[in-house]
Amino acid sequence: MKELQSRYPVSTRAQASTHIDTATYEAMYRQSVEQPDTFWAEQAEKFIDWYQPWEQVSKVDFKASQVSWFAGGKLNVSYNCIDRHLAKKANDIAVIFEGDEPDNDAKITYQQLHDHVCRFANLLKQRGVKKGDRVCIYMPMIPEVGYAMLACARIGAVHSVVFGGFSTESIKARVLDADCRVIITADESVRGGKRIPLKANVDEALKDCPNVHSVIVVERTGAKINWNDALDVKYAEAVAGLPAECEPEQMDAEDPLFVLYTSGSTGKPKGVLHTCGGYLLYAAMTHKYVFDYQDGEIYWCTADAGWITGHSYIFYGPLANGATTLVFEGVPTYPDAGRFWQVCEKHKVNVFYTAPTALRALMSLGDTLVEQADLSSVRILGTVGEPINPEAWHWYYEIVGKENCPIVDTWWQTETGGILMTSLPGAVDMKPGATGKPFFGVQPAIFDKEGNELEGEAEGLLVMKGGWPGQMRTVYGDHQRFYDTYLSQYPGNYFTGDGAKRDKDGFYWITGRVDDVLNVSGHRLGTAEIESALVLHPAVAEAAVVGYPHDIKGQGVYAYVTLMSSATESDALQAELTEFVAKELGRFAKPDYIQWAPGLPKTRSGKIMRRILRKIAENEMENLGDTSTLADPSVVDHLVTNRIIK
Ligand code: PRX
């Protein structure tokens, strides 16, 4: 590999192949922050079809925890993602499905998408779903997950997608919190040749969800599943006789579109609520500009529909732009580690968007599999979810992109709805590891802990001044929590929970979460969730979970467990606890290490000193800091002596 450069100027080649140059980006950015309402009104006219114009472009008052965009405007998200394209694109491909097995694929035109979504919407209506009702979607990565989301949007129901990697406790908590009464699932999902029993997980979760009256089951594998005639509905049979027309519901821009649960530093996950107008505009606009999407191109985001990236950049953004979006069911390493590149070649992918963790895993396996594929169609590369280390960036740029493709490192969050910071391809230079510059209308700032804004080159806490249309509106059912979590720390500003640096050229570098949120393989996990799962086990008295640096996953999960006096430490119990977390939460949340902790370092008021636990997990024993304030400093010696050497 060549020597790593710290800055890659926008090349004339990149500029020739992209559509916004540096001067245009700067002029548009200036307008977006100097005359925001004019800017956003123009974009809203351009990107969205409205039944009725809005009364007020924006009303953003963080101190009063009020965020509203295009209020009074009427639209339907599914109409914007499907119907309005039909005049010109009925026979164009909306969705390319690439199954887990390479010989399983399908192409769905915009007309077919319309018919599927309308039938699904009619089925939901038949089951009594009305505007404003919440519907849980727990599905594999198959086209039906998109049909289900769009069907909800069509009739004004609010979807809550639960990642298919979650298991019973997580499903239950989310169904109960939003009071979902209908669940859409599949018999099983298939990933990397392995089957996951989705319907069985739902059955288990529903033992404690008495309000659920319908479970719509899509057949994916035909596996034998338990069937309850009182609840369960066979999707294919049920939609077969339903009309392929369903009038879209006219929604206010500020009506809810979906709830998506995300992990916080404390307690149960938060239901992040996004609304119809601002969210769709922001998803569509960022998809268009950040990926420089051009009509007719094949666009592939490898995320899962269960995360915000899947919502905004597999379905809503691309479909609003009339794009062809690829839905991938599998994993990067099945049948072999060349799968991403083989799929790019097979479907002539133009824009490819993935996570650094996948790149690191593939990079460690060498270049041959990349080189065997014809990647000449690929024009733009993107990353999301965690900081990309410069080595992985370099590999992506040089080996995958052959130094021809701009890389967009996109920083954003479930809460932000869409990308807030990135380098626009062909417009902003690239610095490996930096997430670049703000998107239009976005005003990042760096604050110190005391709430002072730092100017120029600085490192501190990342906040956003002012709002943007795609931002979350509330925490479902708990508006106070919205204020407390994001708006209370630096009054008048949105706090991201991330630390960041701004360099002398105004580029932003994310330094990671500053709270107890982990980023494991790009999946966001709260340490509190894993701890809650562990203490459900009868042998566990107490648990504390921290992250530690992991070469491939970014962060790994390290758990300290105090057992009940009746239980005995053993390897078998360790394995049992690991499996227990997998069963309760999902396999991706499994602790990598469990250390027995007869005591945990606590202050005299009983607060666990996580800083010390993090240092021990990171093997940084010389930096343990002051332990004199602990109720019992000797517990630290025990933990240090018995730490797990990785
Ligand atoms: O810490 C940041 C990290 O992921 C967090 C948001 O996680 P989630 O809500 O699950 O959304 C992930 C996909 C948008 C952020 O607070 N993060 C996301 N993108 C980047 C990142 N960290 C560094 N660089 C990024 N490009």
Structural summary, described in words:
The protein is α/β, with parallel strands linked by helices. It has 21 helices and 33 strands. Helix 8 crosses helix 9. The longest helix is centred in the N-terminal third of the chain and has 17 residues, at about 110-125. It is globular, with a radius of gyration of 24 Å. The protein starts with 11 loop residues before the first helix and ends in a 5-residue tail after the last helix. The site of adenosine-5'-monophosphate-propyl ester (PRX) has 22 residues, from helix 12, strand 20, strand 27 and strand 28. Adenosine-5'-monophosphate-propyl ester binds near residues 384, 497 and 498.
Bound molecules: adenosine-5'-monophosphate-propyl ester
Q: What's the mean pLDDT score?
A: 95
Rg from alpha-carbon coordinates: 24 Å
Please identify the structural class as seen in this structure.
alpha/beta
Number of strands: 33
Given the structure, what is the number of helices?
21
Q: In which order are the strands of the major sheet placed?
A: 12-11-8-6-7-14-15-26
The percent of residues in helical segments reads: 25-40%
Describe the global form. Answer: globular
Low-confidence stretches: none
Largest sheet: 8 strands, mixed
Strand content: 15-25%
| First-last Cα distance | 29 Å
What oligomeric state do these chains adopt?
Answer: single chain
Binding site for Mg(2+): 535, 537, 540
Domain AMP-binding enzyme C-terminal: 529-607
Domain AMP-dependent synthetase/ligase: 83-467
Cofactor: Mg(2+)
